[in-house]
Design goal:
The structure holds 2 protein chains of 2 kinds. By secondary structure, chain A is an alpha/beta fold. Helices cover 39% and strands 28% of the residues of chain A. In chain A, strands 6-9-10-3-11-12 form a 6-stranded mixed sheet, with helices on both faces. In chain A, strands 2-1-4-5 form a 4-stranded antiparallel sheet, with helices on one face. In chain A, strands 7-8 form a two-stranded antiparallel ribbon. The radius of gyration of chain A is 18 Å and the shape is globular. Chain A starts with a strand and ends with a helix. Chain B is an alpha/beta fold. Chain B folds into 2 domains: 279 residues, no CATH class; 81 residues, no CATH class. Chain B is 22% helix and 38% strand. In chain B, the strands form 3 sheets. In chain B, strands 1, 2, 6, 7, 8, 10, 11, 13, 15, 17, 19, 21 and 23 form a 13-stranded mixed sheet that branches. A 10-stranded mixed sheet of chain B has the order 5-4-9-12-14-16-18-20-22-24, covered by helices on one side. In chain B, strand 4 and strand 5 form a beta hairpin. Chain B is globular, with a radius of gyration of 21 Å. The two termini of chain B are 40 Å apart. The chains are: A alpha/beta, B alpha/beta. At the A-B interface, helix 2, strand 7, helix 3 and strand 8 of A face helix 8 and helix 9 of B. The structure holds adenosine-5'-diphosphate and magnesium ion (MG). The site of adenosine-5'-diphosphate has 12 residues of chain A, from helix 1.
Chain lengths: 256, 469
């Protein structure tokens, strides 16, 4: 098993957001997480990535049979965890090229490899830029600065392609994209899918899942996974809306 | 001589020294200059050294600097081995070099040169003897001897420094670099004076370095007057990399005639206490002045940038961008004052000061200030102080970049907004390199001034090749 989350509780400033999450992901699988806004999807992604502002109060996460919670953000990243951000940060003054070169070489150092030469690095960039249809001049600009929503998301997928993670978490990469950008993003993901890696795709809408076919779909509601199924569950959700889940949860509450 | 004794610098000491040595100090003077010295020492006596009670010195306390004893130097050392002092060569940067040791102009053979294109460069003391009329038109005309105690004191005492004259319509084909090195075995109190005159429609790039070679305390009170004639253009760089025991009060007075253009870059990498008084007066319409500053301070270092721009004529533009990174117990002051006079219509002025505090003990005091006396202006000012962007840190670390590297990347990117404005490519590369090293805590003071210093065992010849100008 690649990732195993058991009874995960997490809070921020004393407020509990995740209230007992169980989730297992194997290599080669694509999992989708759906759910209404404010339900804890991004929080789950942040806790897996290791953002320090969240406190894990209970439960555990194992990744490649290692206790993930003991590792710092950058160590998790070097172990192959990638988070495509819902809101990518603008970093004025740091060019994408410089940023990726630093990241790729830190990763290589971690693996005991020599840094890439300038030429080899640029070749790699060109290759991956093509994959996500990223224009050349974008790469020379500061990270995300002045990018449109679509450019920011493409840039996330580009970085994923550069770093070739084992577990990629994509947090609402589809939000705010027009159909062309959505296709580009989905194509990028599909091209990067292998038997060795896995994806956790967080989305608010079913639309993305027409392009990235998931093996499993989970519904996150108020900090818990309340339903799991296959890709048909996404269609059912689309049809019935999140009120269906809300109502079911209320009924369950009454029954207890 | 008496002046070489180490003692506490007080008003009484300085006025006493002046009284005892006035003849020697004024030895090279033309008559009007001696009279100016006399006025200046009286004015200094009235003003005294500034204390934190004065608004302009509220956040810069000189007591620690004055607590050290210094020898006041009134004569240059006789036996300077230029090659030994400037044991350096220059990578890629092709400049005409002027050397100063402890404030005195030094050269291997010629103290003052007149070049084929009419450019004069060399020792101010020599120039006062040889070109008294030219010097007399400018020297002491722009500096504020009446209001500023350090300028008054400098005016009374200073005997030498750098003089550069670029005649009308002459464009200096390569940058001129002033290397002012402080190097001595005892604590020194120095006062040098520089005069730079750009004729009408002339052009100059000037790199001015303040540098120390050892860890001996020093106190420098340097005054520089720069005159830009009509349509003249000056690209000015001030690099400061002094040791942690040094105090530098640098006052630069720019006088800009109509349509003159100035870009000035203050790059402060090291120093115990640095005070930059930067005063610009537009003396005709359509002038354009941009002042950039970057300062990287740590330990108990202190930097104080005081920028005053006097918009006395219409249609002038001024811009200030000062950025600082303050670590450990360091402190910074920014005081920007833009005065727009009543007739200075269509003035365009902006001021921006940004600071990053890396620790809770670092502090900054920032005050951009506009004083406007007409309605037809476009002015803005702003000041921000904060920490490194934590969201950006997280983003970089999520890509596998370690915390230290991530911090470096962000600090460097922050500084780059100012560094990228450096127009001389080899200089910019060198500064980029120095800033990176400085941020990593690896910069040695002798690496400053755009010079690669060699180890003492391998003396490299210091050639002042002015024929190439
Ligand atoms: N940094 C934060 N500080 C305080 N509350 C937060 C923070 N981040 C998220 N939350 C809260 O956690 C809850 C879940 O948010 P989030 O995980 O972003 O939901 P989703 O991604 O499902 O829309 C929300 O109530 C949100 O207000
Ligand atoms: Mg979210």
């Amino acid at each position: 098993m690649l990732l195993s989350i058991k009874n995960l509780h997490a809070s921020i400033n004393g407020k509990e957001i995740l209230k007992g999450i169980d989730l297992d992901i194997n290599q080669g699988e694509v999992h989708a997480i759906m759910g209404p806004n404010g339900t804890g999807k991004s929080t789950l992604a942040s806790v897996i990535a290791g953002r320090e502002v969240f406190d894990v109060t209970e439960g555990e996460i194992f990744y490649k049979n290692k206790n993930l919670l003991r590792l710092a953000v950058e160590e998790r990243a070097r172990e192959g965890i990638f988070l495509g951000f819902q809101y990518p940060v603008e970093i004025p003054g740091v060019s994408i090229t410089n940023f990726m070169r630093t990241a790729v070489n830190e990763l290589r150092k971690y693996k005991g490899l020599d840094p890439l030469s300038g030429g080899a690095f640029l070749k790699l960039m060109e290759e991956k830029k093509e994959l996500v249809e990223l224009t050349s001049n974008l790469a020379n600009r500061s990270v995300n600065e002045g990018f449109s929503g679509g450019e920011k998301k493409k840039n996330e997928i580009f970085q994923m392609a550069m770093l070739e993670p084992t577990l990629a978490i994509l947090d609402e990469t589809d939000s705010g994209l027009d159909i062309d950008a959505l296709r580009v993003v989905a194509n990028g993901v599909n091209k990067l899918r292998t038997k060795e890696n896995a994806f956790l795709v967080i989305t608010h809408y079913q639309r993305l899942l027409d392009y990235i076919i998931p093996d499993f779909v989970h519904v996150l509601f108020e900090g818990k996974i309340v339903k799991s199924g296959t890709k048909e569950l996404a269609l059912e959700l689309e049809e019935k809306g999140y009120d269906w889940i809300r109502k079911e949860q209320q009924d369950n509450g009454k029954a207890e | 001589m008496q002046g070489a004794l180490k003692q506490n610098i007080t008003k009484e000491l300085m006025t006493g020294l002046y009284a005892d040595h006035r003849a020697a100090i004024a030895a090279n003077d033309y008559p009007a200059l001696t009279a100016r010295r006399e006025n200046a020492i009286h004015r200094f006596e009235e003003l005294g050294f500034p204390t934190t009670k004065l608004e302009a010195w509220k956040n810069t306390d000189l007591r620690e600097s004055f607590a050290k004893e210094y020898a006041v130097v009134l004569k240059p050392k006789q036996d300077v081995d230029v090659q030994k002092v400037f044991r350096c060569n220059i990578p890629h940067l092709d400049t005409a070099i002027m050397g100063q040791l402890n404030g005195w102009y030094v050269s291997k053979d010629v103290p003052l040169m007149e070049l084929g294109n009419g450019i004069i460069m060399g020792s101010l003391a020599e120039a006062m003897k040889k070109y008294p009329a030219l010097i007399g038109v400018h020297l002491g005309r722009y500096a504020d001897t009446n209001g500023d105690a350090f300028t008054a004191l400098n005016t009374a005492f200073s005997q030498d420094g750098v003089f550069i004259y670029v005649p009308d319509n002459v464009k200096s084909p390569k940058p001129v670099q002033i290397i002012n090195v402080i190097h001595n075995d005892e604590n020194l109190f120095l006062q040098s004076r520089n005069l730079i005159v750009l004729g009408k429609n002339s052009r100059l790039s000037l790199v001015h370095c303040d540098d120390s070679y050892n860890h001996q305390p020093s106190f420098s009170n340097v005054v520089t007057e720069i005159h830009l004639g009509e349509h003249a253009s000056l690209d000015h760089y001030k690099l400061q990399s002094l040791n942690n025991e040094s105090t530098l009060i640098s006052s630069v007075y720019f006088r800009m005639e109509a349509s003159a253009k100035l870009e000035s870059h203050y790059i402060s990498l090291n120093g115990g206490l640095l005070r930059n008084n930067i005063r610009i007066r537009f003396n005709g319409p359509h002038g354009d002045a941009k002042i950039y500053g970057i300062y990287l301070m740590d330990r108990k270092q202190h930097i104080d940038n005081q920028v005053f721009v006097d918009h006395a004529y219409p249609d002038c533009t001024s811009g200030e961008l000062f950025k600082g990174i303050l670590d450990e117990h360091s402190s910074g002051v920014f005081n920007g004052h833009v005065l727009v006079e009543r007739n200075a219509v269509r003035t365009n002025a902006y001021q921006s000061n940004k600071n990053i505090l890396l620790t809770e003990t670092a502090k900054v005091n920032s005050k951009p200030f506009l004083e406007i006396y007409n309605d037809d202006v476009k002015c803005s000012h702003g000041s921000t102080t904060g920490q490194l962007d934590q969201d950006a840190m997280y983003y970089l670390r999520q890509r596998g970049i370690g915390e230290d590297s991530a911090r470096m990347l962000l600090m460097y990117a922050y500084a780059d907004e100012v560094i990228s404005k450096i127009a001389i490519d080899p200089l910019r590369y060198r500064i980029e390199d120095m800033v990176k090293k400085r941020l990593q805590g690896e910069l040695q003071i002798c690496e400053a001034c755009v010079l690669h210093c060699n180890t003492p065992e391998q003396p490299v010849e210091f050639v002042i090749d002015m024929t190439k100008i």
